[in-house]
């Protein structure tokens, strides 16, 4: 008899472990986790100056409510109000679970949780445990899931196919990367928590171990939602790390160096008032992602960096000395007040950073980069996909029993408050687990289950196979925060041509499947760009250019989700944020009816 799990979870980051734990709490223990490598992925291997977790305010004095939080996330446009309400109303439960598991979010002397302002946010809902917040979340959740809950984990398994029968998931086929043999796992439900297709860009802040498996999901027949909506921002590239928050608030020098070694500070070439430029550098601390709405304000810094790189120059941040003409009394009042109030007034950026956030310096020191001595090479990099797979409010896809949570799901619209993605990793697992608990068992006929056809694997290893880095470079050039219609169209044709003649001979079986996944993800994003953006225009985290002219945003589309698949886009009206005062007695009676406890 074949082993049939109640649920399989794919991934080993914060979202995957969250789902496994919530399933266990719902008394669903017949589950397993499948992961390509337990120690890989974005949750465990990335961060920023003080990586943010966004939740309902809990500081003891701030006025807040789930409706207000949902409305703020919804205000960015092109996201479902009902899903944002789910994110908000469940945030406290999910946050306090992490606290109970040992994630040491700061508290005041009364036990309140103080917060701060983050990007796309005018409240103080943000909190952090430092640069490695998501890593600590992952480690604490993992300890509970694997050691306390005793959840089964299959490591070194690369998922290569979602098994589907009559639009219902039946399991997954995997490549065991240690044996090079395929294996089949059967399940009534599959929860995919594998992050974005981080592999498609050359300029990327994702850890190199992060691939994603969007291509496998596309191959199974899912649709994408707001897939064009990514976050891009400045990041170091020799060691991949966001240079947001305090990295910008201390106002470093922006330097570019040409091929002959000639160095210059370049912001003066892009701003008529250098003090305005330095004020915008400060604002990049909590306006870190590129935003089309701020393209002539703080996001002009990103454009300046990208323009220098297009000239063949290498761009650096220098914390050793103040930028030319820097005068604290001449920058914006907001920047002045912040520097003085945080007691980080000092005569160089590195000294200001030491006072403001010394842990940010330590992050680079551990990688052999000394910000006291070394300049930091940067680029405008892909950082997060606000879009992803189209799911309903239960995080279930068009395929019954197939759920997608975390960054792989298209939950957010044009913009989102920084740190809301970490909240999303926890809420998605909770909602999916509840739905699996409450729905009827599938009661599959065992004849529906068939092993993956291993005869399909006929390719073999060859050293001199095609590399695809040139396509990643073109994706960063034409399809990142600056989208060129003609360039994307030509690149789509090129990617289609590569897919059609995709070689059976490859470096290894695992690389064969990873590269194929990457190509399918590239194709889907390029198709979304060329089908959607001529209608919606420049918006969110990107500029759209057609016939060498910037296409302005059509704001009417903020009321719609863009759902793409099979080369076309359709627009689905968003749901509003629910606004109602729930009657307590109604829900008390429902609980009494279920439990018979009166």
DSSP, total strands: 22
Beta-strand residue fraction? 15-25%
Structural class: alpha+beta
Largest sheet: 7 strands, mixed
* Separate helix tally: 17
Question: What helical percentage do the residues reach?
Answer: 25-40%
What does this protein look like?
The protein is an alpha+beta fold and 598 residues long. It contains 17 helices and 22 strands. The strands form five sheets. Strands 1, 2, 5, 6, 7, 8 and 17 form a seven-stranded mixed sheet that branches. The chain has a six-stranded antiparallel sheet with strand order 11-10-15-14-12-13. It has a four-stranded antiparallel sheet with strand order 16-9-21-22. A hairpin with a 2-residue loop joins strand 19 and strand 20 (549-550). The longest helix has 28 residues, at 509-536. The model has no long low-confidence stretch (mean pLDDT 93).
Defining traits:
globular; alpha+beta; 18% strand; 598 residues; seven-stranded mixed β-sheet
Q: What is the strand and helix layout of this fold?
A:
Elements: E1 4-10, H1 14-25, E2 31-34, H2 42-45, E3 53-54, H3 66-74, H4 81-89, H5 91-100, E4 126-127, H6 133-148, E5 152-154, E6 157-165, E7 168-176, E8 181-192, H7 214-220, E9 224-225, E10 230-236, E11 241-242, H8 246-249, E12 253-257, E13 263-265, H9 274-283, H10 300-310, E14 314-318, H11 333-341, H12 349-365, E15 376-385, E16 388-389, E17 402-404, H13 420-438, H14 469-478, E18 482-484, H15 485-500, H16 509-536, E19 543-546, E20 549-550, E21 560-565, E22 568-573, H17 584-595
Parallel strand pairs: 1-2, 1-8, 2-5, 8-17, 18-19
Antiparallel strand pairs: 3-4, 6-7, 7-8, 9-16, 9-21, 10-11, 10-15, 12-13, 12-14, 14-15, 19-20, 21-22
């Amino acid at each position: 008899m074949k082993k049939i799990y109640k649920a399989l979870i794919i991934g080993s980051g914060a979202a995957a472990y969250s789902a496994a734990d919530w399933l266990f709490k719902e008394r669903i223990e017949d589950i397993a986790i499948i992961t390509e490598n337990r120690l890989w992925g974005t949750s465990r291997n990335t961060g920023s100056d003080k990586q943010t977790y966004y939740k309902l305010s809990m500081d003891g004095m701030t006025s807040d409510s789930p409706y207000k939080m949902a409305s703020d996330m919804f205000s960015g446009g092109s996201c479902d109000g009902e899903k944002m309400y789910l994110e908000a109303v469940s945030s406290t439960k999910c946050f306090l679970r992490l606290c109970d598991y040992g994630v040491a979010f700061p508290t005041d002397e009364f036990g309140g949780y103080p917060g701060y302002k983050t990007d796309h946010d005018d409240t103080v809902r943000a909190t952090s445990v430092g640069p490695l917040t998501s890593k600590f979340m992952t480690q604490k959740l993992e300890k509970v899931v694997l050691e306390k809950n005793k959840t089964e984990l299959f490591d070194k398994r690369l998922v290569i196919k979602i098994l589907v029968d009559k639009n219902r998931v039946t399991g997954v086929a995997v490549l065991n990367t240690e044996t090079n043999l395929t294996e089949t796992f059967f399940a009534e439900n599959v929860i995919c928590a594998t992050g974005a297709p981080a592999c498609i860009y050359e300029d990327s802040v994702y850890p190199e171990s992060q691939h994603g498996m969007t291509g496998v999901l596309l191959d199974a027949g899912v649709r994408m939602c707001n897939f064009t909506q990514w976050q891009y921002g400045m990041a170091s590239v020799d060691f991949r790390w966001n240079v947001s928050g305090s990295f910008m608030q201390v106002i470093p020098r922006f330097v570019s160096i040409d091929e002959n070694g000639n160095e210059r500070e370049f912001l003066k070439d892009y701003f008529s008032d250098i003090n305005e430029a330095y004020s915008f550098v400060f604002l990049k601390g909590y306006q870190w992602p590129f935003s089309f709405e701020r393209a002539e304000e703080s996001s002009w810094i990103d454009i300046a960096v990208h323009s220098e790189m297009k000239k063949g120059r290498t761009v650096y941040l220098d914390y050793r000395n103040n930028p030319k003409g820097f005068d604290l009394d001449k920058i914006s009042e907001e920047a002045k007040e912040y520097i003085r109030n945080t007691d980080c007034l000092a005569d160089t950026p590195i000294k200001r950073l030491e006072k403001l956030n010394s842990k940010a310096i330590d992050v680079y020191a551990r990688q052999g980069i000394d910000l006291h001595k070394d300049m930091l090479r940067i680029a405008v990099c892909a950082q997060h996909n606000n879009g992803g797979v189209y799911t309903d409010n239960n995080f279930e896809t068009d395929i019954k029993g197939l759920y997608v949570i975390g960054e792989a799901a298209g939950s957010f619209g044009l913009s989102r408050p920084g740190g809301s993605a970490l909240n999303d990793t926890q809420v998605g697992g909770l909602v999916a687990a509840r739905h699996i608990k409450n729905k009827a068992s599938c009661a599959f006929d065992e004849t529906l289950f068939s092993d993956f056809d291993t005869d399909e694997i006929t390719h073999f290893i060859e050293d001199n196979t095609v590399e695809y880095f040139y396509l990643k470079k073109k994706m960063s050039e034409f399809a990142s925060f600056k989208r060129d219609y003609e360039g994307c169209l030509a690149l789509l044709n090129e990617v289609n041509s590569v897919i059609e003649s995709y070689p059976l001979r490859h470096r290894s079986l695992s690389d064969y499947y990873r590269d194929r996944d990457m190509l399918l993800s590239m194709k889907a994003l390029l198709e979304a760009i060329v089908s959607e953006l001529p209608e919606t225009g420049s918006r969110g985290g990107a500029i759209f250019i057609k016939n060498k002219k910037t296409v302005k945003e059509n704001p009417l589309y903020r009321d719609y989700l863009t759902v793409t698949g099979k080369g076309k886009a359709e627009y689905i009206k968003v749901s509003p944020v629910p606004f109602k005062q729930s009657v307590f007695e109604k829900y008390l009676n429902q609980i009494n009816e279920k439990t018979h406890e009166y």
